[in-house]
TrEMBL record:
Residues 343-503 form the Phenol hydroxylase-like C-terminal dimerisation domain. Residues 115-291 form the FAD-binding domain. The keyword Flavoprotein applies. This is FAD-binding domain-containing protein. Belongs to the PheA/TfdB FAD monooxygenase family. It holds the Pfam family Phe_hydrox_dim. It comes from the Eukaryota. Keywords: FAD, Flavoprotein, Oxidoreductase. Its cofactor is FAD.
Length: 505
């Protein structure tokens, strides 16, 4: 942090030291690279050729066509569907896909009378509108975007610069104008600079202001903002001006067919990097529900407290996000157990790939008592039943080879006395040879994960040390029950039956 030419302090914002995540650091990526990485992933996903983005198509209209209401011979025709009109210019800016490759821009404001368009009508079961803060879809289906627009404008620039400010870290500069300037190092000698550019006048519109924002104007503003430090533009790759909105769509779903996601659904300050991330979460959470096609939403039963057991502390109640932690495979011998290099992994690594239910089975330190052959038999019986009853129809591949909707994992706490227990216990040894997701058992070192999930070992407080946690496909706790006996599995079965509808092929 620099103030009037002097370094006044350092805040370690890029090293967060947070324990519960593998990603305990900040990371800056150019928008261009983010887009390229995402597009590459899409192309590599899927069973055959993957998903390709077609650039240059503009959505002009969309509507839900109501179905006949059932009773007809052709069920498909009886269901409602989405009809969307899209167009692509046959001449002009949008005809060259290369030009739109990186940002996927649609030239919505460049309609010219002499322009010719190719028009198509697309029929689909669903439409997910990720068309940004000014969402055409949101306007077309008339969903409000309540909230407020903050009165300040900010300039954002990417390019090469000459400056006496050391810029290998994020630098916040307050100079003579008191307009905060932030410098962020990017790759290839590029730097991102954002500067507060003062309040918008009551009559000023950001689209008009954008037309007057030039590189020389930005350079003057930057020089004033960092004075007495120096700043000179060498080259520019991007310059824009924006104001901050804090808004949320009044509803995210239209007639159960059209969904809003990302900035189309909610928009806020870019500080903290939560814009794109919340958008991903929308899409991820929506995708599993649409892929499975049979979730009941009544009374929000996706999260359900146990009907009779006491409600646990807030950190591990149903509805909270699954916490992460370090786990390791069962050591095969004493040497393995004492080895500092024995391969550890994070709990969250078990949940990567397409969305599935993950059943975590926590044993107590007294494994002899809680992890009996009968316990394992109940587990296998129930999981097998569920896998037959509820079928996952997604066609995407991930680290798991099958398309089961359910994966399950045993976790057993370690203590100084448990190494020999691991080696001598036949059940543990057998489970340690299972495939990941098929009931493989892991060691929870010092019971840290047990504590995070409310199964404190050593019988502390009033919780028993063994139990089952059902993580929903969006990695939130949907259900939890103490105990591993048959009744506990019946409780889980009841929970799943209440939120999932049996699939009919
Ligand atoms: C200056 C700034 C800095 C930011 N920094 C960060 C950050 O560091 N981290 C972070 O997570 N977020 C950041 N954000 C927020 C982030 O950019 C957005 O939250 C994110 O891009 C939203 O993604 P989206 O796909 O929902 O919408 P968008 O990225 O807006 O994408 C919408 C797309 O739809 C297209 N489109 C629009 N209308 C139509 C139509 N009718 N037909 C066809 N296509 C259409 C648009 O061309 C566009 O490609 C920042 C935002 C700003 C403005």
């Amino acid at each position: 942090m620099h103030e009037r030419g002097k370094k006044v302090g350092t805040l370690p914002v890029m090293e967060m030291g947070v324990e519960d995540t593998e990603f305990n650091y900040g990371w800056f990526l150019e928008q261009e690279r983010t887009c390229m990485l995402l597009r590459k992933m899409l192309e590599e996903e899927g069973e055959e050729e993957g998903v390709r983005v077609e650039f240059g198509w503009e959505l002009v209209d969309t509507r839900v066509v109501e179905g006949g209401g059932g009773g007809g011979e052709n069920v498909e025709e009886e269901e409602s569907y989405v009809e969307t009109v899209i167009r692509r210019a046959l001449s002009g800016d949008n005809t060259n896909s290369e030009e739109n490759l990186l940002l996927g821009g649609v030239d919505m404001y460049a309609e010219q009378e002499d322009k010719e368009y190719e028009i198509q009508t697309v029929r689909s079961k669903y439409l997910i509108a990720c068309d940004g803060g000014r969402s055409t879809v949101r306007h077309r289906v008339n969903i409000g975007f309540s909230g407020r627009t903050l009165g300040h404008k900010t300039l954002m620039w990417d390019g090469e610069c000459e400056t006496d400010i050391v810029s290998s870290d994020i630098t916040s500069i307050t100079g003579s104008t008191n307009n905060t300037m932030i410098m962020i190092p990017l790759s290839n000698n590029l730097t991102r600079v954002s500067i507060e550019a003062g309040p918008l006048s009551p009559t000023e519109s950001i689209s008009e202001t954008l037309k007057t924002v030039t590189v020389p104007y930005f350079e003057i503003l930057a020089q004033q903002a960092c004075y007495p430090s120096t700043f000179k533009v060498k080259s520019t790759t991007w310059l824009t001006c924006f104001k901050i909105n804090e808004r949320r769509a009044d509803q995210f779903v239209y007639k159960n067919r059209i969904f809003l996601a990302g900035d189309a659904a909610h928009i806020h300050s870019p500080a903290g990097g939560q814009g794109l991330n919340t958008g991903f979460q929308d899409a991820h959470n929506l995708a599993w529900k649409l892929a499975f096609l049979g979730v009941r939403y009544q009374e929000n039963t996706l999260n359900r407290p146990h009907p009779s057991q006491p409600v646990p502390a807030v950190d591990y109640q149903v509805g909270v996000r699954a916490q992460d932690g370090v786990i390791s495979p069962i050591p095969q011998d004493e040497k393995d157990a004492s080895s500092s290099t024995s391969s550890t992994l994070r709990l969250h690594q078990l949940f990567t790939g397409i969305a599935r239910f993950h059943i975590l089975i926590f044993t107590s330190t007294n494994v002899e008592q809680t992890l009996t052959p009968a316990t394992v038999a109940h587990t296998m019986r129930f999981i097998t039943q569920w896998r037959h009853k509820w079928i996952y129809k997604s066609s995407l591949n991930d680290g798991y080879v099958d398309k089961d909707l359910f994966k399950f994992h045993f976790l057993t706490p370690s203590s100084t006395t448990t190494t020999s227990t691991f080696a001598n216990n036949k059940v543990i040894q057998e489970l340690s040879n299972h495939q990941i997701g098929e009931g493989k058992i892991f060691v929870d070192n010092d019971g840290k994960v047990h504590k995070k999930y409310g199964f404190a070992p050593n019988g502390s407080d009033d919780v028993s040390a063994a139990g089952i946690v059902v993580l929903r496909p969006d990695s939130h706790i949907g259900y939890r029950v103490h105990g591993l006996e048959e009744q506990a599995w019946k409780d889980v079965d009841q929970y799943l039956s209440s939120i999932l509808t049996a699939q009919v092929e």
